[in-house]
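Team,

Forwarding the record for the chain on the shared tracking sheet. I've put the sequence and predicted structure together so nobody has to dig through attachments.
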Amino acid sequence: MRALRILREEVSVIACEDTRQTQKLLHHFDIRKPLIAYHEHNEASRSAEIVQILQREDSVALVTDAGTPLVSDPGYRVVAAAVAAGMTVVPIPGASAVLAALAASGLPTNEFRFIGFLPPKTFARKKALEELRAETATLVAYESPHRILDTLADIQEVLGNRPLVLARELTKLHEEFLRGPAEAIREQLQARSSVKGEITLVIGCAAKQGAILGDPLLHDPVLNNPAEAIAQLQSAGVERMEAIKAVAKRLGLPKREVYRLAMAQGSSSPDKHRG
């Protein structure tokens, strides 16, 4: 409601990433305001124009096609120019795929690192993932639908069977969450005729350096309890033996040892956790 009030009553101009997309929103709520298009190709010149408008003591709203402006979207130069000119910049919180995916992922949220879009080329993407292998915070990344299968394959190869959540079309009509190791999620997507929509990946963290394998103080809470980790993978559609194999690889233990740990933690039959 605050955002609608500001767009309708408190700004003179609306700067938007794509006038066609923003016009749909404004038309729906019967808001009529002049629009300025800004995007990655004209942001530098538009920034100066927007500052001039602000210097006339007019207010400008900055909106993006989806999510939050500046978060893997244009707008940084506009905001930086406004701040440099001594203008007041007021954030109006709204939907953000980063936080929405993280909140619903079921993965640790006490520490997370947003890495934006991974590099589009395979070699650069693998190199970026290699540099993140020791990161002990949950990772959040954006990915395009036409690269997601390749990216999941690279995650599997470089990071192994970490718990992973793929969130698609967040806050929209076809919102979807897929959970499991990268390999299992990739298989689900491969079975579809096509993959569409905006994708956010939430990737479980690496184990804390120096942690004793099998110790209940492992950094990743999901893997504090192998039985629970196995159950979560099964609930995501992973077969029992594949789930045990995935957890074993994540812990660096033999499958037999993971099963023994699971039984010791009170779950001789992970199947009972299916949901």
